[in-house]
Amino acid sequence: SRVVKLAVIPGDGIGPEVVAEAEKVLDAVIEGAEVTFEKTRFSLGAARYLETGDTLTDEDLAAIAAHDAVLLGAVGGMPGDPRLKDANIERGLLLKLRFALDHYVNLRPSVLYPGASGPLAEPGEIDFVVVREGTEGPYVGNGGSIRTGTPHEIANETSVNTAFGVERVVRFAFAQAQKRRRKLTLVHKTNVLVHAGGMWKRIVDEVAAEHPDVAVDYLHVDAATIFLVTNPGRFDVIVTDNLFGDILTDLAGAVTGGIGLAASGNINPDGAFPSMFEPVHGSAPDIAGQQIADPTAAILSVALLLDHLGLQGEAERVTRAAREDIESRDGTARTTAQVGDAITARLRA
Amino acid sequence: SRVVKLAVIPGDGIGPEVVAEAEKVLDAVIEGAEVTFEKTRFSLGAARYLETGDTLTDEDLAAIAAHDAVLLGAVGGMPGDPRLKDANIERGLLLKLRFALDHYVNLRPSVLYPGASGPLAEPGEIDFVVVREGTEGPYVGNGGSIRTGTPHEIANETSVNTAFGVERVVRFAFAQAQKRRRKLTLVHKTNVLVHAGGMWKRIVDEVAAEHPDVAVDYLHVDAATIFLVTNPGRFDVIVTDNLFGDILTDLAGAVTGGIGLAASGNINPDGAFPSMFEPVHGSAPDIAGQQIADPTAAILSVALLLDHLGLQGEAERVTRAAREDIESRDGTARTTAQVGDAITARLRA
Ligand SMILES: CC(C)[C@H](C(=O)O)[C@@H](O)C(=O)O
Ligand SMILES: CC(C)[C@H](C(=O)O)[C@@H](O)C(=O)O
Q1: Dihedral sign (CA A333, A337, A338, A343)
Q2: What integer pLDDT is reported at residue B7 of this predicted model?
Q3: At B115, is the pLDDT very low, low, confident or very high (cuts 50, 70, 90)?
Q4: Binding positions for substrate (chains A, B) (predicted)?
Q5: B79 lines ligand 2 (CB under 6 A)
Q6: Which of A37, A343, B206, B288 stands the most exposed, by the fewest C-beta atoms within 10 Å?
Q7: Which one of 3.40.50.720, 3.40.50.970, 3.40.718.10, 3.40.640.10 gives the CATH number of domain B119-255?
Q8: Superfamily holding B1-103+269-349
Q9: Does residue B274 carry a pLDDT above 90?
Q10: What is the spatial distance between Cα B99 and Cα B102, in angstroms, rounded to a whole number?
Q11: Would you say the pTM of this structure is higher than 0.90?
């Protein structure tokens, strides 16, 4: 039977708690299936940094890259921890993985599940997916400063965008749209970022010409945030750059019931590198170890992972079980493990 | 009596309609006051560009700069108009004015007025102000591309940030906080944009040390969008960069009842150049000429203009009249002029 080598990075804060439940669900859904998961655990994150001074060594990276897929909880220490002042766990670990493993698609579905309640008075039906570029834009780390720390400091950040990088993610987004409601919205800020925005627009127009079955529109990022709260039902597939995607998906998560439910996949569609699945939420160190974090986002990330591995049946079972669990919620407090157990029980039922 | 030289730029689309009402209100509120407004109208925007090919000439700019203040409606033609393909009215006119007139504070109050209804189920009390930097960041126009239009295109955009530019807007924000509820939130993305974000953070920390009476916190821009829909009442003063401010204020406008109500001031606090007041909304060419645009944002921008000119009593009267009008709305459709007339009548009452 097929063996999937899975790298597991529980990380910091609530990461280990939610990953434990995600693994529980994963183990349950593949019981009796023609696939087994061989897991390797990687101790990475703020805790590891504080112990050893390492964020992500070349050896770590090579070892992770030798897997078929990665499941990540969340990384990052307590904000303001003076011992982490010189560490940048986000850049040195999370973004380093996304860039080194060429995760050029950051796939973030936003669904308002029946029973989930968000902040909107009349949310309507919400079911869209954000295809966020993952390896370019303002995230490339192409910044610097001079006269640093003085009143004459100049700090620059350069957003780097390539036709190569934009075209591949745009093509992925069109393919998603064809599997969905055939509507694609480009979000950028073409009126201000005329060079990067102009190139995104040109490439979307070019690829659109090859996909006459997909309806395409464009929104400036500021206008897109308005529609996310006034008419989220208008969206099917959003394709956008790394930074705008970061912002829109947190907002989308809030609108669809909170980032406790928002799953994501950092995907290398070419298969040259393992893809990495993680909840959109962070490590939330303030509530860590209390068994109060919602593991649903991590569990739905397992569904994305299964889908990516071609295990569509298993992916759908996980999504359905999580969906039923959300629908059954009545406000009674449950521990992280109780939510994981409940979803696992539904899977087995 | 005092004479204020006011440049009026009605602009495109609904701009002229809402500016007409804003002027009506301005004329009414200064009746009998020790001040007169000497107005010069500037025909600028997409319409002017289509007629003459000019966006903003040096003569226009010099003439506008010789005024005490500017009232602007909205500029920008019909999206996708092929005749505007090579024009960038936003960059060439609106942003050029903001940069040339050194509008380093873009002040955008967000208030949920009684009677106004936004998309949130439980909005709570919302009353904050965004102090958006107006002359730096990703808006500087420091971008370019090579191999443009080919599959090998590289398009870069550089965000330029200076300690000088950040410190002056941060000081303005702290002064605002001291006049309000003494709480200031810096919004940036320090974990990714480490150089620009690091400088913003350092300067806010330094200025905070001089203002022990102001409580300061920090949010990443993605998290800030979540709080804007789940707990907008937590905000008093937000200080942020040009692009993040653009995004947050559209979202904030939506949350407080729509950008039909959102006013803004592009302010040069030093008084070296005239400040410019404009609704946050755009020219909305699709609904132009139909007398269905809400002029309230333009009218509230007049209140900001009066306040900036030191006419606090008049500013408060305009705000109160607009506020009462909003509170009295019962869903009956009114024309743009009817809303302006109603607010004018309240002023006179
Ligand atoms: C932690 C941070 C670097 C990251 C990002 O900005 O991409 C996070 O916000 C996310 O959305 O996954
Ligand atoms: C029209 C555009 C250039 C402008 C901006 O991005 O600043 C607008 O969105 C605004 O917020 O005033």
Answers
A1: positive
A2: 98
A3: very high
A4: 98, 108, 132, 222
A5: no
A6: B206
A7: 3.40.718.10
A8: Isopropylmalate Dehydrogenase (3.40.718.10)
A9: yes
A10: 5
A11: yes
Topology adopted by domain A1-103+265-349 = Isopropylmalate Dehydrogenase (3.40.718)
- B271 DSSP 8-state letter: S
Residue B146 makes CB contacts below 8 A (sequence gap 6+) with: B153, B154
Q: How far, in Å, CA of A167 to CA of B245, rounded?
A: 29
3-state secondary structure of A150: coil
- Ligand 1 binding pocket includes A89 (Cβ within 6 Å): no
User: Is A178 marked within a binding site?
Assistant: no
Measured between alpha carbons, how far is A131 from A135 in angstroms, rounded to an integer?
12
State the residue for tokens 């755009």: B282
First to last CA, chain B: 24
Residue B120 forms beta bridges with which residues? A120
B129 pairs with which residues across the strands? B109, B237
Alpha helices in A160-283 (DSSP H): 163-179, 194-209, 221-230, 242-255
Residues of chain A with pLDDT under 50: none
Classify residue A66 by its DSSP letter: T
The pLDDT tens digits for B204-215 are 999 999 999 999
Which residue among A44, A84, A89, A94 has the greatest number of ligand 1 atoms within 8 angstroms of its CB, and so is best to mutate? A94
Separation of first and last alpha carbons in chain A: 24
The reply to whether ligand 2 has any atom less than 6 angstroms from the CB of A194 is: no
Task: Tell me how long chain A is.
Answer: 349
Whose tokens are 């500037």? That residue is: B42
Question: What pLDDT shows up at residue B1?
Answer: 86
Residue nearest to atom 3 of ligand 1 (CA): A90
At A265, give phi and psi (nearest 5°): -125, 130
Domain ranges of chain B: 1-103+269-349, 119-255
**For residue B86, pLDDT beyond 90:** no
* Residue B347 pLDDT: 96
- Tens-digit pLDDT profile for residues B284-322: 999 999 999 999 999 999 999 999 999 999 999 999 999
